[in-house]
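quick one, three chains, predict together pls
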Amino acid sequence: MAKLNGDALGKIDEIVARHRNQAGPCIEMLHEVQNELGYIPFEAMEKIAEATGTSVAEVYGVVMFYSQFTTEPKGKHVINVCLGTACYVKGAQQLVDRVEKMTGAAVNKTSADGLFSLDATRCLGACGLAPVCIIDGKVYGNALMGNSFTNELRKIILAERGAKA
Amino acid sequence: MRERITTIEQLNTVKEAEKKYLHLRLQGNIELTDDDQLFNILVCSGTGCTAGESAKLLERLEELVEEHEMEDKVRIIKTGCFGLCQKGPIVAIFPDRVFYTHVKPQDADRIIQEHVIGGNIIRDMQMFDIDKETGGKIYDIEKIGFYEKQHRIALRNCGKINPENIYEYIGVSGYQALYKCLKTMSPQEVIDVVKASGLRGRGGAGFPTGVKWQFEKNQPGHEKYVICNADEGDPGAFMDRSILEGDPHAILEGMAIMAYAVGAHHGYIYIRAEYPIAVSRLRIAIAEAEELGFLGKDIFGSGFDFDLEIRLGAGAFVCGEETALIASIEGKRGMPSPKPPFPAVAGVWGKPTSINNVETIANIAMILRKGAEWYSAIGMGKSKGTKVFALGGKINNTGLVEIPMGTTLREIIYDIGGGCPGGKKFKAVQTGGPSGGCLTEKELDTPITYENLIAAGSMMGSGGMIVLDEDNCMVDVARFYMEFICDESCGKCTPCRVGTKRLLEMLTKITDGEGTMEMLDEMEELCNEIKDTALCGLGQTAPNPILSTLRYFRDEYEAHILEKRCPAHVCKNLLTYSINPTKCRACSICARNCPAEAITGKPGKEVYKIDSTKCIKCGLCLSNCRFGAVERH
Amino acid sequence: MAEVHIKINNQFVTAEEGDTILEAANKSGIQIPTLCYLKNVIRSGACRVCLVEVKGARALLSACTTPVSEGMEVWTNSERAIRGRKTTVELIMSNHNKNCLSCKRNTNCELQRLCAELGIRQNRFEGEHTPPTFEDASWGIVRDTSKCVLCERCIGTCQNVQGIGILGLQNRGFKTICGPIYNGSFNDVNCMQCGQCVIACPVGALTEKEEIHEVIEAINDPDKVVICQTAPAVRASLGEEFGMPIGSLVTGKMVAALKRCGFDRVYDTNFGADLTIMEEGTELLKRVTEGGTLPMFTSCSPGWVRYIEYEYPELLPHLSSAKSPHMMFGAICKTYWAEKHNVDPSKIFVVSIMPCIAKKSEARKPELHTGEYQDVDAVLTTREAGRLIKMYGMDDLDALEDEAFDQDLLGEYTGAGVIFGATGGVMEAALRTVKQKLDGKPLERVDFMECRGMAGVKEAQIDLNGTKIWIAITSSMTCAKPLLEDVRAGISKYTFIEVMGCPGGCINGGGQSIVSARKKHGRIGYTYKDRRMKALYDEDRFKQKRVSMDNSQIQQLYDEFLGEPGSEIAEKLLHTTYSPKQKFHLVGMEE
């Protein structure tokens, strides 16, 4: 666990101060910290605990309860594969396997080079387009059949890792 | 700063002014005058169509209108979901009532050139249905099967108005019901109307909404809350998202009415963070409503104050359970607590709280505007009104449908949904998500009501409806749901935390071919015990997918156990792949793509063979073979 | 309170509005088994052991959370209720490390008892276990999640009793575990090591770190002189380890048993307590007369000392510099006693038998070492002492004839030392000596009743030779916190504050015999603390000498060795320093 730099600490302070007087602000604060830093560092939990009058253990418990929060920094590119029912019955598991193989990131983990995170997510509500994948926020429907998703992912891998990959 | 609206006259003035723009889109043929030579081009901006680049399309259309200086003739409107996500991105053009499907950004030019300027409907992009009798094409929207049987109340404005423009909502009589309640009715009168309408909770359990409100109203004290449950977590259900994206003001108005009725002054909308578009539309809507005075202090000069706050979920299905949702709003781990006490007595911050689901709230304004009799005339038995279902899985028309209660499953799946694609045989329909069950061909003629679905071994749930065909293994489907529940169990109570894990293990053994017949009895017994002992609704209903599949598809379980065979060819461990030597042309494509290097042969010379000890049963060879030589058993 | 009329097992029961089914049942003598519920600490309905059948309810309801309502009909033992309860326990067992025979809680485990009572004869459900964590990096507490039943009793205790919140749930579903953040060690967080979580745990998931092995090794080492000292609170609880009623005073039997274990000497830490009073009392007088930092806090509870080092470092100057009694005793053993008996101090092995878990890390605290030795070499809790005695074949403590502590040099003790074991005892002991010293004549009234009792905060105004001072007594950190906040704000009216880490003081220490939740909720209830306290005050009452300064061996110690309280050598051996502690030590966070 690396120490946070002053810049990040400043951002955390700002977020905590903004929600301090709200009722039950813990999750709101965590969302903003994660949006800002990509993960929830220890220092943020400590500051949130202090501001909300709870223990660090409780804040940590909240972070570990909700699947959207992570205590580890995410990869440079985040790929979400929807594992909702509709996507599942249309072969989302094969997609997961494919992305795992291509990026080297295991499900809900980050690849060793820190470039890719693969997250299996709950239903994204785009069932009409099943199976659905998201690369860095951009949604790809019918991702198993069409080429757009695979091609895009291949392009990114090529750009990041060069031809050897 | 726009003017606050405090009187009915102001509200009506805005409504009339808006009507001029809206009438092209709305039913009721208004005579067009020369000034009205307008086109309304509606571009769906729901999550599904946005994923298909509808935002770019919208931008391009706006550019073209500007280029051709047609701003006074053509109005481009960003709308919510049309329901037919399968065919998205969708563009609708009024007054011609033409739906274009699968529209790409580059198609914008054609729409402007050919349709708007040229006056010709672009047939190759137009949506149509096939007339079952004549075999001809039907282009009329109202006659298309998907829409014909629908009755849209909760979805009334989705795909018709711009959700980011409060005036359009006012134009379709928005906030009239709130005015009526605040200025002409007592809170008890409002509750009485909701009670008389027969509206029941659309989130799953079907508790009468008016009775719920009455409980909270009867509680002493002045600090009370209302909550809109927008934590739509059932995989396969997305009606709440569509309503929030397409008609956010309907929720705001419904919540304000609800707050007035129960005596609350503060409300929360608890929404999944996975719905960014819905969140941003809600934020815009709340800001607009505050600006115009429909939220905040002294609404319509009635002395009633109400404000609304959005709270984001963070990825926990269990937070759809109301006590867990309350814990989450309070910033804690989303773990349910035992009921009683019910939230109506001790909810958020320990104060009386009513929690209603998005779809339920979307009905409120309409009920108050049109009356309890109007609403209760729709539906069947104790299930009044309409219900929105999210059709998905193996069905031609995936999307959102709203039907009157009492419609049969068959009508939804075949008349509206168009049946299973690829001529595959229908096997089952899963309703109610992880808390529901699977129904078979035999139950298809059951009219949909809360009671009928429960009697058949499933439940209404939030309205996910996943169609399964012959290629789906029912044991695997049960396993999928149990895996979901296991992942999403909060871990608080023993039966759910450990019991669902044990169920999953038994199911996995069966799908792996290691099951025994005794296991079926053990599983059934444990299912019934979990139903009786778990702490919250999630745990108590968790065994339903197993119980219903055991009830209707016991033969499939038995095939896995006794014959070590998966009839639908899904369960990997029970499959074998082989290559039919008479069909193999030795092209080598299977071997080259096999990730396990399990296929050997000589290109062009020797037919290929699969080494079953190496095969990982991924099925790539089967999909790659162009000669149908790969066989799965 | 309005009356509510309900029926339990077809029997009419009158309950009070707001009662739960469990409370109503208990009041009318109907017992319902529980596991996760702990009165005043946690009531979550999580474990599903106390399930009962309620007419009209769709599913079984947890008796501990469901409020009674007029006309309610409840069955606690219907076929359905028992089946549900049994399935629940079977499911817990299926994810439980069933090494009962080698578990410290064997025969004293609430889960084991439930299994026995419900007649669970087979493992109906078998399957994967939650990935376990075994963690024993700290000197005090061992955490083994493979035994954890996720009752949250430890979490509730740390949060609600101590107001700290070291422990929390992590992950969710089947992966849920309970522990300090990052599933780490108690060493890496601001844990005061009081062990209240350990005595709240129904099973063997949280236990003390055992040192029995080290002690036996020392006893068996012919070169070692093994000196045992026992804290006052131990004698009021050790009997429970042998099935004697709560509150049995077993001083003589304990000594007899320990001597049979082969200790070279068995002394009473009360000698150290008397010594503490001499030093601490003198320090207080000095601070009052010379204008030192006031109020002064007592320093004999190592849990409390850890707490203040973590949470209120700016208040450290308020803490008395006196070491705790057993540490003073250890220091004197290895100097004065060694010299007098001509024993090489490196050969002396001091074992403290304590009601406390925090004493284990206290003994290892570098600031507390005198020269090159640890003052105390091993610390056994009351429970470990019980195990040691049983290991030496004595399982019937009651059958042993009373024996007396060794008397040479460090053997005498006064009643003031005995009452150290209960909240308010240190204060009363100090007041006895300080007042007698100032009065210059024996006390007319030895009992300071205002110091006694189980209240979380007690205060009194005391006349010291014409000067009136306010004193306060508190135990547990939730009760201490408001007093500390006042001191921090500079608005405290007190001159002297006794703080004990555990609620009720050492008699309820984390190292004491474990009182099951069933006992706490039953007839004995929370009077178990009063019963133990009474045992100590009884011993005090019958002591001839009840003021520490009257202890003749203490006087001899000063005459022959220390000079006077607060002398240079006393400062060196009997006093210590404190330093602020960093709350969290996480990998990579050090500069």
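Chain C has three domains: 3-93, 95-208, 212-574.
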